[in-house]
Every structure is written in structure tokens, then in C-alpha cells.
Write a structure and sequence with these properties.
With about 475 residues, the chain is α+β, with helices and mostly antiparallel strands. It contains ten helices and 23 strands.
Amino acid sequence: MSQRSRTSVAALAAVLALLAAGCTDIGSGVRGTPGAAGLRDPYFPKLGNGGYDVKHYGLALAYDPASGRLDGTAEITARATQDLSAFNLDLAGLTVRGATVDGTPAAYNRAGNELTLRPHQELPEGTEFRATVTYSGVPEPLTDADGSEEGWLRTPGGAVAVGEPTGSMTWFPGNHHPSDKASYDLALTLPAGVDGVSNGVRTARRTERDGRVTTVWHTAEPMASYLATVAVGRYETGTATALGTVPVLTAAEAPAAAGSAALRKEIPGILARQVKRFGPYPFSAAGAVVTENGSLDYALETQTRPVFPAGSFDRTTLVHEQAHQWFGNSVTPETWRDIWLNEGFATYAEWLYSEEYEHVPARTRFERAFAQDTNWAFPPAAPPAAENLFDPPVYQRGAMVLHKLRETVGDRVFDEILRGWPAKYRHANATTDDFTAYAESVAGRDLDALWDVWLYGDGKPRTP
């Protein structure tokens, strides 16, 4: 063994000894403890991390579509919620090149999808700190329990990143549980001639010395990491203004551009109609991304700019994903068990749109859903496993809960609930219990009989 090898081994041993020291730093008086390696979500117990609250992500990404290589730097600004001796970030695959905390090198190690950082000094509770991680590699998608793929998905001309429920960990380290929302700045560097789109408002575009082009995107409002997106390829873009002040940016991959152009232009009008029902639009930007068929098998409500495969870009799906900007994106579930609060509301938004603009009563849509046996496999508020989070009962029976609420309390009170719910929990997290309590407070009555049958009941009622 050469001297250089012996030195590397010694250095590695020192780092491992430092990590093994746990909450004790010899001579420093450290009293902190490591943050939890997971938040005990009912379906993803290791997802997310304890001991801190992220305030902001600053992501600098450089991507080469030809090789699939991603080089990234994540600067994470957070506040310690306990005395921290170490903390975790979720990261799947990729190679970590280095880490610092407040500019000082931090020891780090990997175990599965957990990246553990140990600062040089403990972080007292209440302290704001900045962790920076540099990393690289070829991101690999995740296969969900239901068989669908998510994460960083390569396309013939680039990539598209979608993260529900856990896929964002494939392209940046973070606290990837929906209960920890943050603002974002993302700088995306690509070869000349390749376009890049992300969430929020594009604040800069510059050509680098090597000819590559960098675009910078700013998301001011809190965003759960599963709603972050990047789309890379050759896109045709369109711009408009919604609601008087909200910039609308749409992007469609070249094969899908012509066929999607007319519907993309309808986005300002659809948002205007939804504002009348749901209250003020919660974000400072809007739009859509339409990808070529084949790389993505489903649409997703990525914040401010939902992503659609061309084959799913129709008016009904567009209404659904835009409704999520209120229900799911602004009001975000506290855990994945509360996902019906996203999908039930977005599905009912489809029913309301059909009722108002296509003259199909919501009651008709309700009766059709009631007749479908697949919608009665389990209660919408209690999916049995992770593989069932996006099954029909979450969507259709979730919407049925809302329609029965409407029929029980009347249109006037229901409209108050429909607008008041996203106002009360604007840019926050909420649970099913929060919703039922809120609905009862607005209705001024106990609604347990409704919840027991439609939200939590195991069986199908005898009549709709």
C-alpha cells in the first residue's frame, strides 16, 4: 500500500470516528442530538427528516441531455427545531462531492436514501443555518408501489422531473416530506439550443462563457418538494397574463406544440372561473408544460406550472390540475394519508366545471361515481397502503364526500366552505381532521353522520 493510500485510510477513519461520536464532540460541550431520519409518515416512515425546518432551497443544476449527467449544488437554508448535532437529507442515488454547514466543511455519510451531515459545531435550537451539498451523477427514476415511475425521467431530447410522492429526492437533497414547505430559487444550465422550464417566475437568462445557457427561476411562495419540476428539451413557449397581474408561461415540446396551442391559451380563462369558486389565486405565476408522449404516463399538478403528457392534455385534466393550485399546492396535506384533500377537491372541481360550463349537473357525476364498484374499495381518508394512494376511491369517492357535504349544508354554506378552506390554510399544511372541523364550524352543526358513512365508512351505502 502506498503512502497516499495509507493517508486516505487514516483520513477516512477519522471521519468515521467523528460520525460515530454521535452527540458528543470531545472538548466542545456539544449537547445536541441527531435529528430524526424520518417523520413517520403512515406510508413512507423514512421520508422527510426531523430536527429542522427548511426555509429556502437554492438549487444550481447543470444537465447534459446527451450523457444524462446532472451536476448540482443545493444550498438549503433552515432553522433548527432542536439542539442538533447532526441532521439528515433525503437523496436517492447520485454521488455527494462535498458538504458544508455555514461555510465550514461538514462530515457526511450515506445509508440508502439518507444523507447524514454532521456540522463542525452543534446547531442550537432556533438557529438559522445554511447547508450546502455538491453532487453529481446520472439520476435514476423511482418505481412507485403502484408501478408508475417518478423522479428525473429522461426523454429523447432531455428530461422531465416529477416528484409525487417521493421522486424529488432523485435530483436534489432535501427534506422531502410534504409537511416541510419552502421557497425556491433554481438556476438551470443547459447546452445552447436546449430549453429549460421550472416552477415560478423566470428572473434571468444568460449565456455562459462556454456557450451554455442558464435560466433562473424563482418560487416565492412555500412549495412542497414533490411539486418542484424541471423540464428539459426543445419547447415552444407562449406567454399571457391571467387575473390582471399573473404571468402565464406555457411550454410544449415540439411534437406536442401545435396540438396543444389552443388549450394552452385557455388557461387565463380557466383560472378566472376558478377564482370565482375557490377565492384568490394563491401564486405569483401560472402556466403549463406539455411533454411529448412516451416519457411521462400521467399529469401532475407541479406548482404554478402543471406537467402533462400530450395525450392527457385535455380540458378536464387541465381544470383538475389547475384546481390543485388551491387544493394540494397552497393547502398541502400534513401526511400522505390526507391525499384525498388534494384529489377529492380537484375531482370535484371537474364536476363543478361540467355543471357550470357544460350543463352536466354535479349530481349526475356523483351518481355515475356511486355506481362504479372500484370507488368502494376503501374509504378515501384511509388508503390501505402506499400503492393505493392514487386509486379511484381517493379521487371519485373523495369528490362524493364533497357533494354529499354540499347537499347536506346547502349551496350557500358549501360555497363558503369551498372558498374559506383554502383561505384559512393558505400556504400551510392541513389534515383531514382540520377539514372536518372547519366544515362543521362553518355549517354550525355536527356532521359526524356524513363523515362516518362517506369519508370513513367501509361499505357502500344502500342509496346515493
